[in-house]
Amino acid sequence: MARSKQQKPNVGKPALALVGAGPLQGEVIPAPPKQPRAKKGGGDWRPGFLNAFKNSGNIRASCAAAGISRAEAYRVRDEDATFREQWDQAREDAIDTLEASAWQIARQPHGQYILWKLLQANRRALYGDRIGLGGGPDASGPIRLVVVYEEGPPEGDA
Questions:
Q1: φ, ψ dihedrals at 46, nearest 5°
Q2: Domain residue limits at 80
Q3: Side-chain half-sphere of 158: how many Cα atoms within 13 Å?
Q4: Dihedral (CA of 56, 62, 66, 67) sign
Q5: What tens digit of pLDDT does each residue of 101-114 get?
Q6: Is 69 a domain residue?
Q7: Dist CA 48 CA 145 (whole Å)
């Protein structure tokens, strides 16, 4: 009896392989996505994380408040579309709070520069530097520059 090629195991990702006879023989069914781990002391850490993130805009501080690691927060964000949407909304809420503070402080004589820089970093489309090179948002590749002299090139550049 000839030996069939064996499939390489799905390293690092648990899966269920169907064995035996039938049309699904040898088919690999991926394991369901991991559920978020409960923080120490039990319970779901996500509401506490999102509340802290909404109020601070700081991932590290939000993880500390929820009792989890940054790696765990990013892992769950990458695997859970609903949590990713909630994360994005909490970030927008944090930036809205920053923007409201910026407007209040901007009316005062000091402290404007740091707020402007924070706004530039988080809302680049509104507060960032605008440099246009043409070609639209999907343009890529080298930029061709053509130098045109009105009265010919300067001496020595011929």
A1: -60, -45
A2: 36-125
A3: 4
A4: negative
A5: 877 877 777 677 77
A6: yes
A7: 53
Report how far residue 65's alpha carbon sits from residue 63's, in angstroms, rounded to the nearest whole number. Answer: 5
∠ CA(63), CA(65), CA(70), 5° rounding? 10
pLDDT for the residue numbered 78: 96
Half-sphere exposure of 119 (CA within 13 A, CB side): 20
Distance from C-alpha of 102 to C-alpha of 114, rounded to nearest angstrom = 9
Closest CA to 30 of 47, 49, 43, 14: 14
The H or E element containing residue 120 is: helix 112-122
Is there a domain that residue 91 lies in? yes
End-to-end Cα distance, the chain: 80
In a domain, 61, yes or no: yes
Encode pLDDT of 15-72 as tens digits: 444 444 444 455 555 544 555 555 555 579 999 999 999 999 999 999 999 999 999 9
> Could you give the CA distance from residue 14 to residue 28 in angstroms, rounded to a whole number?
10
Number of domains in the chain: 1
Residue 115 is predicted with a pLDDT of 73
This prediction has a pTM of 0.50
139 found inside a domain? no
Distance CA 61, CA 70 (A): 10
